[in-house]
Amino acid sequence: MSANSLLTPSEPAENRPTILQRLRLVIALAVFGVLLMYSYVKLVVIPYMGFKHHPTLGTVGDVFEEVDPEASVMTGDLLLMAGSVTWQDYRNDARLPFFLEARHQEVILLQVQRGDQVLTIPWRVIGPTLEEISDRFTLLWVPYVFWLMGTIVLFTRQGWDSRRTMYVAFTYLTAIWVMAGLVSSAKIFYSSILLHMGVWMSVPVYWHFHWLFPQPLPRFNRRAFLLLYLVFALLAAAEWFAWLPTTAFVIGVLLALLGSMILLFAHLISNPEQRRTLGALVLAVAISIAPGSLIMISYFTNSQIWSGASALLIVPAIPVAYYYAVFAPSRGGVGTNTNRMITPIFFATITYSFLALGMLAAQIWQPTTGREVPLAVDISVMVGLFTAILYPIVQETIDRRILGISIPPTQVLETYSARITTSLEIKRLAAVLRDEVLPSLSIHQAALVAIQPGSSTSEILFEMGIPRDQTCEPDHYLALKQEAGRWRGSEHSGELHEPCPWAHLILPLSLQDQEIGLLLLGRRDLGGSYSQADISALQALADQTALALVNIRQAEQLHALYQHDVLNQEAMQLHLARELHDQVLNQLAALANQLDDQRFTPELQSAYQQTVKSIRDMISGLRPSMLNYGLYSALLELVDDLNAQAAGKTSIHLNLPASSERYPPEVELQLFRIVQQAAQNALQHSGASRVEISGRLSPDAAEFFVHDNGKGLDIPSPFDVISLLEKQHFGLAGMYERAAIINANLDIGSTHGTGTQISVRWLTTQEPSS
Fold first, then answer.
1. DSSP state of 11
2. Which pLDDT tens digit goes with each residue over 443-470?
3. Helices 631-646 and 665-681, interaxial angle, to 10°?
4. Backbone angles phi and psi of 308, in degrees to 5
5. Long-range CB pairs of 675-679, under 8 A, 24+ apart, other chains included
6. In what order do the strands lie in the sheet with 85-86?
7. What are the angstrom distances between the C-alpha of 206 and each of 51, 217, 279, 297, 321?
8. Closest CA to 747 of 714, 705, 710, 711
9. Which stretches within 583-683 are classed as H helix?
10. H/E element holding 756?
11. DSSP state of 247
């Protein structure tokens, strides 16, 4: 059953929105009225006794009135009776106030145990003092934070769903039992009973809420949850009839908190696309409830850590953290998403957590008079002195480690523009957009789709953070072209019959009326909507992406043409080598055979042999014949030829283990050409005195290193064929393309004065590109 079916009366459709708004207003005002009533009880109705007492242990805490110690209660006294009400009666009856007979300016007899003595003290109730009033105001505002956050969601204009219903129930119910707990020690207006009943009812509400938040866990069993509500409703009813021990409700608190944390961790495991948001939330909640959990444990175990108001000061961070995790709308521009609120919330939570835990530890080691709030203020001032130093460090850590923000949001567009101008590979462009730019804009759900020019086919360049049950096929993305440029708000997204229901914003990638692709964006972290400023900035990002894709396509076309030229050049050289071998050499041999000894003079014979040698050298240069016997043999011959060319000015060495390993002919040819070009570059341009060729030839890989001790060279960045041709490194561009043809990895390292090393590595599992 949906939230709308639960909250909408059976009235005509045109009247339902008004009735629903009135019902929401009644609920909000009713809860607010309960808070106001118990605030009045806390501040006015409960007698100002002049001291504090522990509602579970019965010990005296802070004494606000300075009187004669011999005629006064003291910190640590055990209260046995106040007027005619004994401590045991008070403990066993949730409706019986302890100071029932206390009146302003009247004397009430208190019976206390101090050490081994039992004393009767006539205590005058002198009325409120400034210090006691201030003490009562300490936590009075906490329930109102829960009420305020629930009311904001209750009256939101965004689409209503079961998560919002449970969030309102979670915050309102918590506000009621926390407020009742603040006055429960007085047991006025059924405050103690309301506290216990509210805690028991919180267990199914907390579990139900965390089952649905932020996305429902699988296998939701409606009957199991109805049974759960029934069981804890019976426990709440048992509190009304006093059938349970007065401290049993603490078990309910622990069940609610532990169950909620377990379900949050279950979401962390089952929703990997939301782990950044959930991780930050789980950490904030765990830190917020830790001090309060210690207090609950102290109540349950009857330990002496009874005063810990400061430990609850950070609890209001919980509803705020939940709100910003799911419901908060996006505000401001593309660089100011609301998830930036995580850092101040997290920093404040950490600060006050250590403050509260430190105060609790101080009470364990050396119990004080219980005046934690003034101490908290003093420590907060000292903590503030370190904030200027620690906050930037915390912010940077959270941005990078939790939110994935590697680029300052205000610099995203500029940085992206600079990156794509130097990127001529689709993989690199997609990686920058997926891993750096979008996470820095608090977007972890996205897809980039390229549309082939002049056709209806598409290619998915990357997808990120898409729920498993909402993955899209390429034809689904094409169906979204009609919605390009339109915001698919929460009232549309999530309907599974729509293509790609996860996509909230679809941006067209176009250039001069040419469709380039689509950029699809899902919900943003800690805020599901996009403002108009966000959409405009993101469209500029999409336009930059479209321009980059066009440049990459042009570069790929140039790349393909260059590779085609390389292959054509090899084919022409092979054809010319065969023509020289089969035609020219054969014709020269036939001509020599037709000459007799008289005409075939020694001079002619020498010229003939020199011509044949020159042609054979040309054939070897065009197509190394030793490649027919393998790479190792061809490289031996290459080193001999290069040493002959160097004429002693440069020594070329082959440091390669002998191998008979063979690879596909095309692979052997391209690897040989790369090594040949690298060695010739070293001879002609480096001014090196030594060139070494090393590597290995194995069944799984062929790897070569060509290192010289020359003057080095400037390596362009990025290292691609376009940059190499622009810098007129034609030899390096040829090597780069030959490596690309056979899918080998080429790397060049060089520093001025220490030479250059060129490495190429080809794996046998790879195949040459077509």
1. S
2. 878 888 888 766 667 788 888 878 776 7
3. 20
4. -155, 45
5. 675/635, 675/638, 675/704, 675/706, 675/760, 676/638, 677/731, 677/734, 677/735, 678/706, 678/735, 678/758, 679/638, 679/642, 679/652, 679/706
6. 85-86, 78-82, 107-114, 117-124
7. 35, 14, 19, 19, 15
8. 705
9. 586-594, 602-622, 631-646, 665-681
10. strand 755-763
11. T
Would you tell me the crossing angle of helices 249-270 and 191-212 to the nearest 10 degrees? 10
Q: Are 624 and 672 in contact (CB under 8 A)?
A: yes
- Contacts (Cβ under 8 Å, ≥6 apart) of 457: 451, 474
- Mean pLDDT within 541-559: 77
Distance CA(614)–CA(49), nearest Å, equals: 118
Spatial contact of 440 and 405, defined as CB atoms under 8 Å apart:
yes
Q: Are strands 51-53 and 745-751 parallel, antiparallel or unpaired?
A: unpaired
Q: What is the DSSP string of 285-302?
A: HHHHHHHHHHHHHHHHTT
Cα distances from 684 to residues 410, 640, 708, in angstroms, run 49, 17, 12
Answer whether 683's CB lies under 8 Å from 647's CB.
no
Look-up: residue for tokens 């891993």?
435
The tokens describing 591, both together, are: 């001509």
Q: Tokens in use for 164?
A: 């919002």
Q: DSSP labels for 506-558?
A: EEEEEETTEEEEEEEE-PBTTB----HHHHHHHHHHHHHHHHHHHHHHHHHHH
Is the pTM for the entire model greater than 0.70?
no
161: Cα separation from own chain's centroid: 25
Measured distance CA(263)–CA(266) in Å, rounded: 5
Question: Is a pLDDT exceeding 80 seen at residue 658?
Answer: yes
**Residue pair 520/536 in contact by the 8 Å Cβ criterion:** no
Q: Print burial letters for 752-764: b (CB count within 10 Å at least 16), e (below 16).
A: eeebbbbbbbbee
C-alpha to C-alpha distance for 665 and 624, rounded to whole angstroms: 12
Contact 487/475 with Cβ under 8 angstroms? no
> In the predicted model, is pLDDT for residue 230 greater than 70?
yes
The beta strands (E) that lie in 17-125 are given as 51-53, 60-63, 78-82, 85-86, 107-114, 117-124
CA atoms within a 13 Å half-sphere pointing along the CA-CB vector of 140 = 17
Looking at the predicted structure, is the pLDDT value of residue 228 above 90? yes
Query: 144-153, 199-208, 417-426: lowest mean pLDDT where?
Result: 417-426
pLDDT digits (tens, 9 = 90+) for 46-56: 888 888 887 77
Query: Is 460:449 a contact under the CB 8 Å cutoff?
Result: yes
Amino acid in the structure at residue 304: Q
CA–CA distances in Å: residue 169 to residues 163, 175, 233, 382? 10, 10, 15, 38
Tell me the residue type at 422.
Answer: T
Q: 730-741 vs 665-681: helix axis angle to the nearest 10? A: 160
Burial of 420 (0-12, 13-18, 19+ CB in 10 A): buried
Separation of alpha carbons 318 and 289, rounded Å: 8
Q: Are 724 and 733 in contact (CB under 8 A)?
A: yes
**CA-to-CA separations, 72 to 80, 82, 358, in angstroms, rounded:** 15, 14, 30
Dump the DSSP string for 27-41. HHHHHHHHHHHHHHI
pLDDT value of residue 169: 94
Omega into 9 within 30° of 0, i.e. cis? no
CA–CA separation, 238 vs 241, rounded Å?
5
Residue 746, H or E segment: strand 745-751
Query: Under DSSP, is residue 337 helix (H, G, I), strand (E, B) or coil?
Result: coil
Show the tokens assigned to 60. 């005296």
Q: What is the side-by-side order of every strand in the sheet holding 514-521?
A: 458-464, 446-451, 514-521, 505-511
CA-wise closest residue to 413 among 552, 543, 549: 543
- DSSP, collapsed to helix, strand or coil, labels residue 726 as helix
Cα dihedral 323, 326, 331, 336 in deg (nearest 10): 100
